[in-house]
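Dear colleague,

Following up on Tuesday's group meeting, I ran the structure prediction for the two-component complex that the binding team flagged. I've pasted the input sequences exactly as they went in, so you can double-check that nothing got truncated or mislabelled along the way. The structure tokens for the whole assembly follow below. Feel free to forward this to whoever is handling the docking comparison.

Inputs:
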Amino acid sequence: MAAETILVVDDEPPLRELVRVSLGDGYQFDEAADIEAAWEKAHERRPDLVVLDIMLPGGSGLDLLRRFREDDSLADVPVIVLSAWQTGEDEQAARAAGADAFMPKPFAVDELARVVDELLEGAV
Amino acid sequence: MTRSSLVTRIVAAATVIALAVGALFLVFVLSLSTLRRATSRESKAKDVTVAALQLDALTADLESGVRAYVSTRKPRFLEPYNEAKREWPGSVSRLRNLVRGDVVQERRVQRVSDQFRSYLSDYSEPIIAIAEVAPEAARSSESEGRRRLDSMRRGLLQILGTENARSQQRIADANGIARRAEIAGIAGLAASIVLVLLFGAWVARAVARPVRRAADAATDVAAGDFEVRLPERGVGEIAALGIAFNSMTRSLEESRKAVLQQNEQLQASERHKSDLISMVSHELRTPLSSVLGFTRLLLDRDFGQEEQRRYLQIVDTEARRLASLAEDFLDVRLLEEGRFDLDVEPVDLVTLVREQVLLFFGTTREHHLELDLPLASVVVDADRDRLAQVIGNLFSNAIKYSPDGGSIEVRLRIERATARLSVTDEGVGIPREHQERIFEKFFRGGAVAAGIGGTGLGLAVAREIVEAHGGEIGFRSTEGIGSTFWLRLPLSGSAPLDDLEPEEPEARPVHAQQQTRR
């Protein structure tokens, strides 16, 4: 079985790398630094899961999430939202936009791996 | 509008009313005293009538006495005559006293008195003497006696008639006066009532109504309506009340506005503070995520030596980022306290700019750098690290605020004994409404919404540093087209910029520059 594809959207290269290393070699990774690049990447190769930062140059990650949810092919892709704005409102907004999980920064790497596993198993 | 006082007006009106009522009362009293005089004259006329009628009766007694004696020659018949003769002078003098002052009547009384004396001396006394000796002869003279007495009685009737006529006249006069007094009294009463009513109406209009209005307005003010105003006209005190009231409501309104404004400022500063806290928190979390995350991975998992090194490198970089953030906050504190310790030495700007260019433009692939530096060195007296911080800030802003890439032009020139460094990008630019505030610390404009990270401290600190070096910093920007930030520093050994000409307006607008460059 082909390895699942995870799209990591964050404007900070170290953060993208952290997500990649945390989740390990069992996945294929696509990366994007802003929402337009992420949109293109998602259409080039449909991701099995998206790790999405909220604060991105050129527009909020939640805007991208809403576009995913309205897109026929991407509507049911599980999305984990990361945010450095650690407020209850942020989590509510993320859930309202269609996030499957919300993780405040800084996040525990094991926790991220666990949530990713859960979501991918649920999707199968 | 005259501002005569209310008290003056009320006193004046009361005086007018008092004078009018007093005048009417005077007329009334004068009428009454005239009436009283007329009445006393009338009673005197009655006394005159009584006295004249008494004399008339005495005259009748004289004649009948003489006639009876002449016919009978009996002395007892002479008694009424003698009685009348005795009483006559008293009666005449009483009548004379009554008519004293009335020349016509006095003359008439005198004539009757004369006629009486001549009747006694020329007729009655001689006839009585003759009757004793020759009764026939005396009887034949009776007609003479009647003629004289008739003349006397006519005189008396004249006096009586005149006196009665005068009395009638006086009664008529007195009635007239009484009627006039009555009319004057009623008219005066009516006039007084009208005056008092008019005065009351005026007081109501000039005083009661404005006071009522003031009370209503005060109620409105109590209910929180500070825009209510009273008319500032009317008599003195009322106008003064209006002016004072309006000044009160104006000042209340101003106070309320001031309080509201203060409150708004407080709320804004409160919002600002909470924005600031969440922004600081956000800025700390991003590098902290990498530091904690990679540390945890390094501790928990086994990596090859090369990977370990790479992750430690990331941890180091991100930890330095945290340290630099801490520096920025410290700088802000120093900036707020107004003390920068500058470690000044001669610094070659060309070298410094090259170093910073390598540091900042080494990592970006989207931006195309155009570097325009002089061949010779450009030396300024500066704190090397601080100046590097400023230049680095301008470079990092140029990269950060042109997320779509494009050209970034870095140019260093010597102009009029100053070094001028400019950094031009083709980025998002600064909206006009934000341009005045971009050097404010913590001001981020639309950067938060655009997802551009930062603390809003860079430019505030940069300006403080440049000004501490005796230089100046500025910018030119058009939203959606790009920005040019420049700074000028005095060349080593020259005077601070305050003594030099200010920055000349740029000949070409930013977008024109960029068009020529494209």
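The two ends of chain B are 75 Å apart (CA to CA).

Cheers,
M.
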